[in-house]
Amino acid sequence: MTNDGMKIPQATAKRLPLYYRFLLNLHSSGKQRVSSAELSEAVKVDSATIRRDFSYFGALGKKGYGYNVNYLLTFFRKTLDQDELTKVGLIGVGNLGTAFLNYNFSKNNNTKIKIAFDVDPNKVGTQIGDVPVYHMDDLDKVLIEEGIQVAILTVPSTVAQSITDRLVQANVKGILNFTPARLNVPTSIRIHHIDLAVELQSLIYFLKHYPTDAEIT
Ligand code: ATP
């Protein structure tokens, strides 16, 4: 099994963590194989898509046998760099930021928020969960020292761009942006944007205008 240098389509890559989490659960319950139908039911992705996705991983399911759970887990662990802990920094310890600090990401994957930053003197110097909160004045220094290349942004949108510029200067390569601000970054930086208000609005719009199968009777 080799996946060095292999390019998986982006849509498939986005589903990897989902598959990985489910397979981990299967593995810990002692299951050694799984069919695409079972997977499909559990992760809510149609089985044709699962078969196509898995063919990129070199995992070819056998009829009447399904997929080998161990083989897939080894592949995912390698592809998702699960053997290496990815250290994440969080900027903005408000309501949302605090919730993330208390949430145990590392339960299912190997990412960990190591350090947080804020400007509020009531928050700087404290520890939330086991994560220390530093002042923004130390941002560049601490990020570089700790080798942190992934950041979560939970600051007010008015300051999001200027903080992003500093993150880029401090060698951050990926930003998960929870602010509504659309950020400008060099093409070498990857930004994933999650706007909870927009997602909620879109869900409500879809509920109204695209009824689910159960409602079309
Ligand atoms: P809270 O109720 O704790 O203020 P909130 O999520 O409603 O939370 P926001 O105004 O969105 O508050 O701010 C989020 C966090 O970002 C706060 O902890 C705030 O102190 C912090 N913050 C504001 N400006 C900056 C900045 N320039 N750099 C870093 N953090 C900042």
Fold and architecture overview:
This protein has helices at 10-28, 36-43, 47-56, 69-79, 95-102, 139-146, 160-169, 196-209, and strands spanning 33-34, 67-68, 86-91, 111-118, 127-128, 131-135, 150-153, 174-177, 190-193. The model is unreliable at 1-5 (pLDDT under 50). It is an alpha/beta fold. The chain is globular. It folds into two domains: 10-78, Arc Repressor Mutant, subunit A, CATH 1.10.10.10; 86-198, 3-Layer(aba) Sandwich (Rossmann fold), CATH 3.40.50.720. Strand 5 and strand 6 form a beta hairpin. The N and C termini lie far apart (47 Å). The strands form two sheets. It has a seven-stranded mixed sheet with strand order 5-6-4-3-7-8-9. It has a two-stranded antiparallel sheet with strand order 1-2. The structure holds adenosine-5'-triphosphate. Residues 91-97, 117-120, 123, 136, 155-156, 159, 163 line the site of adenosine-5'-triphosphate (ATP).
Secondary structure elements and pairings:
Layout: H1 10-28, E1 33-34, H2 36-43, H3 47-56, E2 67-68, H4 69-79, E3 86-91, H5 95-102, E4 111-118, E5 127-128, E6 131-135, H6 139-146, E7 150-153, H7 160-169, E8 174-177, E9 190-193, H8 196-209
Helix pairs in contact: 1-4, 2-3
The chain binds adenosine-5'-triphosphate (ATP).
